[in-house]
Specification:
The complex is a heterodimer of chains A (246) and B (255). Chain A is mainly alpha-helical and 246 residues long. Chain A is built from six helices and no strands. The relative contact order of chain A is 0.02. The mean pLDDT of chain B is 91. Classes of the chains: A mainly alpha (246), B mainly alpha (255).
Chain lengths: 246, 255
């Protein structure tokens, strides 16, 4: 169909070119007054034989004269020629018929199809944009959820770490307190042991010294109570003197 | 005809072309007729090629020319004067625009150099056709009585003034319109053709004697050729838009 249509229009185009080519040279004839006069002379010679015969015939001469004057007298240019009205009218009617039936609807159809295609492309682009926006909002929502979850995890970890730190600190403090109590008990025990040992040693030394001084043996029980009482006084005096018990 | 020593051909020889075929018959063919036929063929070729279905998103070549023409007629003529109702006249107005345009533009086509609408035949034929169309449209839209009433007694005019207005409207709407339409187109093309011929003859004559002064009319000839291209478009547009105005007035008397 397309090839046939192309052939048709190529033919019309060629016809149009031929018409225009013919129209150019068509203007050459009768364009000048001289050409017109020459044509009238030839016409008179053909009709009457010679110009002399025209001059001899009064009526022929007047006609010839009128024809020659016609070469310089312009017919009213505003009056249309019948042949041009017929051809011009026919040409427009043919053109209008073609345009009404084929030419205009075909061009309009092509324009409408293009508009429709552009409109559908725009709709598709709008739909794609909406999809993209929806995907973006989904992604952003997921991102926000992930951020929230991460923050919760971090908070939880931080709380657990705090708890662990507090537990460890409490345990360490308990251990330290226990060790300190144990050390204090050990120190107290050692101190008591030392005091007992010292007391025994001092008692023995004092008894021995007293025996040598007085030369007599004292009752061991009495000695013992005297010494203990002395040591207690000394111990009490030492403790009061140091203040902090060291 | 000698004017200031210039051999100027008589006006009839600038517009009245000899017959080429069928001399002496009502179907005689001369240069003017050939241009009419060529204008028809050119418009048919233009729209025939443009109407072929194509997938291109951007129209190019003849398709672009035809679609621009259609858009121009629709947006600048029909929608401005008639409205959406006038779209049914698009084929008629488009045919008219391109037919007149191609018949005018031959004025500046080398070796043709004659605007076919400088002959009265097509302007008066188209103008009478327009007269028939807008009157038929008016009668169909408003009825015979309504159309005559709205045409001869325009609403909003004080009734005393109808004594003056009605005869004017009668002559204007039903008598003068087709002739003013035809004469406007015809006279513009005649004047343009005469101007081009005048400057062409002046250039040719001066060129035989003095080269330098011939430059002036030659420049004018070039400028006038460009101007006549504009006039060709403009006159086609004016004829078409006035046709649309007349049709719109018949369809919508309130406007």
């Amino acid at each position: 169909m397309a090839r046939k249509t192309l052939r048709l229009f190529a033919t019309l185009g060629a016809a149009s070119a031929v018409l225009l080519a013919a129209a150019g040279p068509a203007g050459a004839a009768g364009e000048t007054i001289g050409g017109c006069v020459l044509e009238q002379v030839h016409h008179a010679e053909e009709e009457y034989g010679s110009l002399g015969a025209v001059e001899a015939d009064e009526k022929a001469f007047k006609d010839f004269e009128a024809d020659l004057e016609g070469c310089v007298e312009a017919p009213s240019p505003i009056l249309p020629e019948l042949d041009e009205i017929i051809w011009g009218g026919l040409a427009f009617v043919i053109l209008f018929g073609f345009m009404w039936r084929w030419g205009f609807p075909a061009v309009k159809r092509a324009m409408d199809a293009r508009s429709e295609k552009i409109r559908s492309d725009l709709d598709a682009a709008d739909a794609a944009k909406t999809d993209a926006l929806r995907t973006k909002s989904d992604y952003e929502a997921q991102l926000a959820e992930a951020k929230t979850a991460a923050a919760a995890i971090i908070d939880d970890a931080r709380a657990q770490a705090d708890q662990l730190r507090q537990d460890l600190q409490a345990r360490a403090e308990a251990d330290i307190a226990e060790q300190r109590a144990r050390a204090a008990a050990d120190i107290e025990s050692s101190r008591r042991q030392a005091i007992d040992d010292l007391r025994n040693d001092v008692a023995a030394i004092a008894v021995g010294a007293a025996e040598r001084v007085v030369g007599a043996s004292l009752d061991a029980g009495v000695h013992r109570s005297l010494i203990d009482g002395y040591i207690d006084e000394v111990a009490a005096g030492t403790s009061a003197g140091n203040g902090d018990g060291s | 005809m000698s004017v200031f020593a210039l051999e100027f051909p008589p006006v009839s020889h600038l517009f009245d072309w000899p017959t080429i075929w069928f001399d002496g018959t009502p179907l005689a063919i001369n240069k003017t007729v050939l241009i009419y036929l060529a204008a028809t063929a050119a418009t048919m070729v233009l729209f025939g090629l443009a109407g072929r279905t194509r997938e291109s998103l951007v129209p190019v070549g003849v398709q672009h020319v035809a679609e621009s023409g259609v858009n121009f007629i629709e947006n600048s003529v029909v929608m401005q004067t008639i409205g959406p109702d006038g779209k049914k006249f698009m084929p008629f107005l488009t045919s008219m625009f391109f037919f007149i345009l191609f018949s005018n533009i031959t004025e500046v086509v080398p070796f043709i150099q004659f605007p076919a609408n400088s002959r009265m035949a097509v302007p008066i034929t188209l103008a009478l056709l327009v007269w028939v169309v807008y009157n038929v449209v008016g009668v169909k839209s408003q009825g015979v009585f309504g159309y005559l009433k709205n045409s001869l007694f325009p609403p909003g005019v004080p009734w005393v003034l109808y004594v003056i207005v009605t005869p004017i409207e009668l002559v204007s709407t039903f008598v003068v319109r087709p002739f003013s339409l035809a004469i406007r187109l015809w006279a513009n093309m005649v004047a343009g053709h005469l101007l081009l011929v005048t400057f062409a003859i002046l250039t040719a004559t001066l060129w035989e004697f003095f080269y330098v002064p011939a430059a002036l009319p030659f420049v004018m000839l070039i400028l006038m050729t460009a101007f006549e291209i504009l006039v060709s478009f403009l006159q086609a547009f004016i004829f078409t838009i006035l046709t649309a105005v007349y049709i719109g007035g018949s369809m919508h008397p309130e406007h």
